[in-house]
Specification:
266 residues; alpha+beta; Tumour Suppressor Smad4; 11-stranded antiparallel beta sheet; 4-stranded parallel beta sheet; 6 helices
Length: 266
Amino acid sequence: MKIGIISRIDLEKALDLTKETLEHFADEEVLLSPKVAEKLGEKGTPIEKMDAEALITVGGDGTVLYTVQKAPNTPILGINMGGRGFLADVNPEEASEALNNLKKGELETLERERLKVEISGNHIAECLNEGVIRSKEPSRNLFFRILLNGEEVEKNRGDGVLISTPTGSTAYAMSAGGPIIDPRLEAFVAVPLSTHRPRALPLVFPMSSKLEVELLEYDRKADVTADGQVSKEAEKGDVISFEKSENSAKFYKWKGKFYEKMREKL
């Protein structure tokens, strides 16, 4: 089995667990991401060039999101050394058991939907959690309109808008006032950010639709960010579109069920 390992390097506990993971797979081909390899005195391989059968992340959900951007088609087992751990859902004390199950081929895989993000027809990225459109200048808000399949839904003025998948509904979207969406639903949610309309509500749409956000003021620019990993600039006349991606993210299924995790972590 060919395994790739991506770990945080700023936590000694994460590096120690990475060493233990290497021992678990001592008789397998194991590749380390460059920064981890440098810390451990080993040879590194860029994540996008690993060509691994499975990826193991040792860190938090941010480490998982970074890895998905680099290698979207490889299933991930996430060991949580961070905060909530909705994506990296293996607790450190369970790591040995999870790694043994992975090695024996006893872990099921599941898929999570992603959103394709474009600016005026130019592909930017695909996001597992959310795409965020925010004013490039914090002191100046944006004027924008939201369209669904070409039909105007609303116009709004504020800091911006966040478009989330069900997976991302327990992350930034929830903090911004959005609903939690069961990951089995094919839907996404648009959450206005600090708008002038105090009762601007989140809107939930079928993921089969195309959602667009058009910027309406000539002197205002926006940052468009996917999963906090990829960021591009947009300006008046640009249309930022969100559609269901053909490429889902793949994960190894661990013990926790969604509502059990929700009760424990939120």
